[in-house]
Amino acid sequence: MNRTTLSLIAGTTALAAVTAFAALDSPAASGAAPGAAARLPVERTGLLCPAPSLSDIADTSYTSFTPVTKGAASDGKARLQAADEQSADGPADPSKGKGGKGTGKTADQPVLTPKAPGTPVTGDTSGAEAPALIGTADGRFAPGWTVQETTEVAAGTGRGLQGVNCTGADTEFWFPGAGTAAGRTDYVHLTNPDDSAAVVDVELYGKDGAIKSSLGENLTVKPHASEAILLSTLTDQRQSDLTVHVSVRSGRVGAAVQALDDKVGGDWLAAAADPAGSLVLPGIPKDATDVRLIAFTHGDDDADLKIRLASPDGLITPAGNETLHVKSGMTTAVDLGDVTRGEAGSLVLTPTDQTVPVVAALQVVRGKGDKKETAFIPATAAVGARATSADNSAKGTTLALTAPDGTATVKVTASAGSEGGSPVTKTYTVRSGTTQDVDAPVPAGLKGTYALTVEPVSGGPVYASRTLAATEGGVPAFTIQTLPNDRGMVAVPRTEEDLSILQK
């Protein structure tokens, strides 16, 4: 074959590729609109789980679950294994240098390996040496892959139940609700899943604005490594209500804040939903004894928000807390007390006039006296097509659903149990402006733990959260995870090959 023929073939191939791209990006020659994007199962998912605890008496379980998804690949695999490097001396202290010191150890054995979609798989560990985990799933295991990390700490700082959904890597995170006050021990955990180092800035905003410190700048997280940064090492100021902003200069990381208290337990504070003018914080426990709202806006304008509670009977305004003024660049907090008064509830924040993007979270306390426990509810995105919750039990699980803008019908499916049981599905109607703690289905013949999938069928947007509860030594231990879309599906533009351009 001569060079001219090769050049012609190469040119034709390249032109065909360009033509296919043009068909994707432009209307058809006939003037008809291009086809709507198809929604297809994702083919690969990555998740990052922070190191669970610094307590020697911590017991941690991991639960992995992938819902059965129509159209998913017939093969694939999922693995969850230790990050290659952990700080040799525990959490990083930025005042002692950037990046921390790694052990260089590699854990080849996965913590757990799922066997098939539709059935949860569990793994466990104990003590203070458990590392952060990096997970990947592809093929049939990728759509909606969810991993829950749940830790029980019997005594000491942060005692109680701590839970977090392992999340994907990103480049920006907001955490309203952290603190550096006396008695608080809060860490921001950063995990890098990639082959190159990530460079990260950690900024703190308090009641008077940005807290100036160079110690949170240019922090290096090594490849396949994790760092836990103690917030009190970034500033000498001791404040009970802070907003933490994690921004990545290069690379990407997973991030979560572990908020621990000497007296009222603690929990993981997951990243809040992206700044928005209206926010929903779903699933305040009906027996909450104290609820605190923390909000922040980073723009040039102040935000004025209307506060409403979506109760079982509709939207109501808490007496004495009708509105909240959030000054630009400053963290604002307000005590709402026992706002739910024995009924299910979700907080709905909307602008009173001008729309200004805001981030927000709730600090929720259950119990009284020296038997208090704490959890957090960050503002969250709607369920969308489907949300997934792993690690549920027959008696300790509460599923909260709220439909702030219109009545919705929701299908909830309990998976098979990790050690046995058959799936069960129930359908619920959530009236507009209300919150329901639904009687979530439990697998028939349940053995072990199980997963819940939440799928809106019709009506307005639905927001959801799941509470796990267990009484330990008289303390009402609990943890709350919001349930945004599990990102099991992705929109793929329709394309078609059009070689007619070669004939012109």
What's the short version?
The chain is mostly beta strands. The chain has one helix spanning 3-25, and strands at 38-41, 44-49, 58-65, 76-82, 121-126, 133-139, 146-153, 160-165, 172-178, 184-192, 198-206, 209-210, 219-221, 225-230, 242-250, 254-261, 266-269, 279-284, 290-296, 303-311, 314-316, 323-326, 332-337, 345-351, 359-366, 373-378, 387-392, 397-403, 408-414, 420-422, 424-430, 434-438, 444-447, 450-459, 463-472, 475-482, 489-492.
Task: Explain how this protein is built.
The chain has 504 residues and is mainly β. The chain has one domain (40-85, 109-491). Helices cover 5% and strands 47% of the residues. The strands form ten sheets. Strands 9, 11, 12, 13 and 15 form a five-stranded antiparallel β-sheet that branches. Strands 18, 20, 21, 22 and 24 form a five-stranded antiparallel β-sheet that branches. It has a four-stranded antiparallel β-sheet with strand order 5-3-7-8, with no helix packed on it. Strand 7 (146-153) and strand 8 (160-165) form a beta hairpin. The longest helix is centred in the first third of the chain and has 23 residues, at 3-25. The protein starts with a helix and ends in a 12-residue tail after the last strand.
